[in-house]
Amino acid sequence: MATSQEHIIRLEIPSEIQLIYVLDAVVSEILREMEFDDEAVEQANLAVIEAGTNAILHGNSSDPNKRVYFQFLVGEDKLTVIVKDEGEGFNPDLVPNPLDLENLLSTSGRGIFLMRTFMDEVNYSENGTKVQMVKYKFNENK
Amino acid sequence: MATSQEHIIRLEIPSEIQLIYVLDAVVSEILREMEFDDEAVEQANLAVIEAGTNAILHGNSSDPNKRVYFQFLVGEDKLTVIVKDEGEGFNPDLVPNPLDLENLLSTSGRGIFLMRTFMDEVNYSENGTKVQMVKYKFNENK
Amino acid sequence: MDVSIRERDGVTIFDIQGRIIGSDSLELKSVIDDHIASKAEGEVKILLNLARVPMMDSSGLGVVVAAYTSVQRKKGRIALLNLGRSTRQLIVMAKLMTIFETYDNEDEAVASFQ
Amino acid sequence: MDVSIRERDGVTIFDIQGRIIGSDSLELKSVIDDHIASKAEGEVKILLNLARVPMMDSSGLGVVVAAYTSVQRKKGRIALLNLGRSTRQLIVMAKLMTIFETYDNEDEAVASFQ
Ligand SMILES: Nc1ncnc2c1ncn2[C@@H]1O[C@H](COP(=O)(O)OP(=O)(O)O)[C@@H](O)[C@H]1O
Ligand SMILES: Nc1ncnc2c1ncn2[C@@H]1O[C@H](COP(=O)(O)OP(=O)(O)O)[C@@H](O)[C@H]1O
Question: What is the pTM of this model?
Fold first, then answer.
């Protein structure tokens, strides 16, 4: 038996917001298996839900013919999550800061901020249609 | 928005028996979303776990470099589950009947029997490396 | 997610149970909006009991913010009861802790409305 | 899945909690095997309490069958307590209902061993 370099789980769903519960179930279970502590589980779980929600609602505009692709790379000390949609993309640098005073009482616009707050790395690519996030198991810097 | 003919969810895992919990989470959530009744949920869930376990242990011999592919086709009135492994295959017709007296106290050999018992359709193809199972929501025949 | 509503001394308590993620926020929003719409100006007194909400996403938080704004507009009052670790963290991170009134004790929270 | 073990009037009760699927069966098997190995012939008295097992797969059922066979070999006795709908259905389908002793009441089950 060759040693497996990567332990990859893939999930692919149509763009229906109800399927966030399926995503949630997968992520929760992976994080539990990886024995992240409870707080890290909640944080990573939330970040993945935010990314998945954005891919469904903003990326794919809830078009059920467009799909969202999730990859979970399970490592010894970290989980990498990649979320890819089939939308037009966007420029994440132009998203307003939800902590600015004029945005504090906005009813939306906190998803990417929470992803950046709760994950150790968040990188957009492919014109904003793909986001890669990393959560480390023992993060001494936080 | 074009009408989506099929509502397909895909899951792909390496051959690690611990990942049955991820499979379980996905199936449970899909069945719950589909509003199957509790008994049907348990039955379909069990059948999928049996098929997944077989793919991991028998099909792929727990080789983590081999993968198992799940497809869930969510219909109005039925769920179709396809499980595909990367193993050598087998002949399902040659599997002994676990209800035969000499097998009653066997410690294994009931997986396929339970799949056939709890799903409405079970069909093996591709030399036994692929199994397709259907569970209907309102099955008047059962 | 499930929401049930009860009244105590003129305060309407929304007992929410379960994670508020995905489309739960739409459901929660409509329950809260309907309630606010049914009340006259100055008469809205809402307590959102989050004791049994282990987690909430940004759309859930958006609903709480929207509720806050609607209630303000109607010259009513809204407060949050029993934030858990995760929901508290979310609100702290979003810098909303100083904006929302929060309580850890239902009697106290209800009394504050009198 | 979690297993805890307690003794009552010389009967060893295994309280199992959670679904028995996937690798749970290996864990359960080793707990039961260790217990049986620790007992002398004729002294094994086991009650598997399945009250909090909402579901069990064929490998879980295989462990119960293996336990039955080991206990028989050691001239002991094993019974199942509090089968739920799902575990009962599994055992019925596998035509094992007439082979296993089953009880729905712990006092009765324990008394039966005396
Ligand atoms: N995958 C995506 N595709 C296209 N646009 C996106 C995507 N993700 C985010 N956006 C854009 O970035 C904005 C901010 O997203 P976010 O911080 O998650 O807040 P919200 O989703 O509440 O608007 C969104 O309103 C949307 O315009
Ligand atoms: N995906 C598969 N690939 C190869 N062989 C399989 C597969 N599924 C089942 N089998 C064979 O069929 C037998 C019976 O399977 P099953 O009824 O599930 O019982 P068990 O898994 O307990 O042996 C297995 O022991 C194995 O030899």
Answer: 0.93
Task: Evaluate whether residue A126 is within a structural domain.
Answer: yes
Q: Spell out the residues 6+ positions from residue B135 whose beta carbon is closer than 8 angstroms to its own.
A: B36, B40, B43, B44, B47, B78, B79, B81, B118, B119, B120
CA of C58, closest atom in ligand 1: 22
Q: What is the CATH number of the domain that holds B94?
A: 3.30.565.10
Would A142 be classed as within a structural domain? no
Nearest beta carbon to residue C96 from set A17, A46, A104? A104
- Average confidence (pLDDT) per 10 residues, chain D, 114 residues: 97 98 97 97 97 98 98 97 97 97 98 95
What ipTM is given for this predicted complex?
0.93
- A50: domain range? 7-136
A52 close to ligand 1 (CB < 6 Angstrom): no
In tens, the pLDDT along C3-53 reads 999 999 999 999 999 999 999 999 999 999 999 999 999 999 999 999 999
Ligand 1: centre distance to CA C106 (Å): 36
Q: Which domains does chain C have, with CATH numbers?
A: 2-112 (3.30.750.24)
Q: Does A97 touch chain C (CB under 8 A)?
A: no
Record: contact A17-C23, CB cut-off 8 A: yes
